[in-house]
Structure to design on (405 residues):
């Protein structure tokens, strides 16, 4: 069970000297990545947290790419942009552990309350640096049910049927390309490519790459999947040219594309989630997911309240968030299917029996993440550069992980 011991003794043990304990109402700055429709889904949780904890929350938006540039500079000055931050990228966590920039949360979170492995993924030398919020599975290719019904299309059950579906959509008047290609910072293309790795290489390949323990031959398999599956699909025109991912989402929803590989967060960004459904590449045994982790800034003036906010959001906050749509809980009491809107319930059912995998680029992090995202943007517009792409990605992975086993 959750252990809520936030007294002065705990603070003296966990936190730097000089921390302030406010007697009056405290205002905390919460930094998160959600804007627009995504933030609207988070708003009720923020207001509930204020009421439950007796605090005021100022929230601001910064995405992980901005954190990776901003935080090291601010840490050097003994500061950070927020009291609680969604800034749990593995590379940042490693830097924060080395420099004492994040607060250890191991005394206020219990691993038994959460999906197995969630806390361990942000644990270094026994110290927990990430309070898990919800996770966003990336179950496969989303499609509009009404679009499929209008054109007599059905989700594929074999790889051959998948290719037939793409060819059929190519011939539909008004279709720019069957598959929308999200871009921006590169992660949508990385998520898409990773689905093909899992589908054709199996969950074990992805886990070994993510954990940095892949054998030498694993990269031969990665190369084969890129050269023999992804490149022919790109050359055949099945994928659209990359666009900023929310623009690609809008174009898919209006019918410029038939399917879009994305995570469940888009269910909170479309007009009618009940008109959306999803399918995986037939035969896929694993599904990647991305957990949103909160960290507590060690330079906060209100450490006690910041720790309490992170712990509340990780537990009761999840229970409220999943009811808003677009989120799947990592907190066991919030996994009751009755809490979810219909579209999310269908996603949960589609994932039944699959191996859950942490995203490759986020798990390895660092230079590998930057290189993979950059090189996949190149691959999408220049498929003939595949050999250089593979070489650059592998070398970055070896530098971060220490090389093939």
């Amino acid at each position: 069970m959750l252990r809520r011991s936030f007294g002065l003794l705990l603070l003296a043990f966990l936190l730097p000297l000089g921390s302030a304990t406010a007697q009056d109402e405290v205002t905390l700055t919460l930094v998160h990545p959600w804007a627009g429709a995504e933030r609207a889904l988070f708003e009720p949780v923020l207001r509930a947290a204020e009421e439950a904890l007796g605090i005021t929350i100022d929230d601001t938006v910064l995405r992980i790419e901005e954190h990776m540039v901003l935080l090291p500079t601010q840490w050097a000055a003994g500061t950070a942009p927020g009291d609680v931050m969604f800034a749990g990228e593995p590379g940042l966590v490693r830097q924060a552990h080395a420099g004492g920039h994040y607060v250890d949360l191991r005394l206020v979170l219990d691993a038994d309350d959460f999906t197995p492995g969630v806390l361990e993924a942000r644990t270094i030398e026994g110290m927990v640096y990430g309070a898990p919020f919800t996770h966003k599975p990336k179950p496969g290719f989303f499609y509009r049910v009404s679009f499929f019904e209008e054109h007599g299309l059905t989700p594929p059950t074999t790889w051959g049927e998948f290719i037939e579906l793409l060819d059929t959509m190519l011939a539909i008047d008004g279709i720019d390309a069957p598959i929308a290609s999200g871009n921006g910072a590169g992660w949508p293309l990385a998520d898409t490519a990773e689905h093909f790795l899992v589908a054709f290489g199996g969950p074990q390949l992805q886990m070994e790459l993510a954990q940095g323990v892949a054998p030498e031959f694993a990269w031969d398999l990665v190369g084969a999947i890129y050269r023999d599956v992804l490149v022919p699909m790109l050359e055949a025109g099945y994928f659209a040219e990359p666009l900023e991912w929310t623009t690609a989402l809008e174009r898919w929803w209006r019918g410029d594309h038939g399917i879009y590989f994305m995570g469940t967060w888009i269910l909170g960004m479309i007009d009618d989630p009940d008109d959306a459904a999803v399918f995986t590449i037939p035969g896929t045994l694993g599904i990647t997911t991305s957990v949103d982790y909160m960290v507590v800034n060690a330079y906060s003036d209100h450490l006690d309240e910041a720790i309490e906010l992170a712990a509340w959001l990780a537990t009761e906050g999840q229970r409220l968030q999943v009811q808003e749509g677009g989120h799947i809980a990592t907190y066991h009491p919030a996994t009751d299917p009755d809490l979810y809107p219909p579209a999310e319930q269908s996603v949960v059912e589609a994932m039944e029996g699959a191996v859950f995998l942490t995203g490759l680029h986020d798990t390895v992090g660092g230079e590998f993440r930057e290189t993979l995202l950059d090189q996949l943007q190149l691959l999408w517009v220049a498929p003939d550069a595949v050999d250089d792409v593979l070489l650059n990605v592998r070398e970055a992975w070896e530098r971060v992980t220490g090389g093939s086993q």
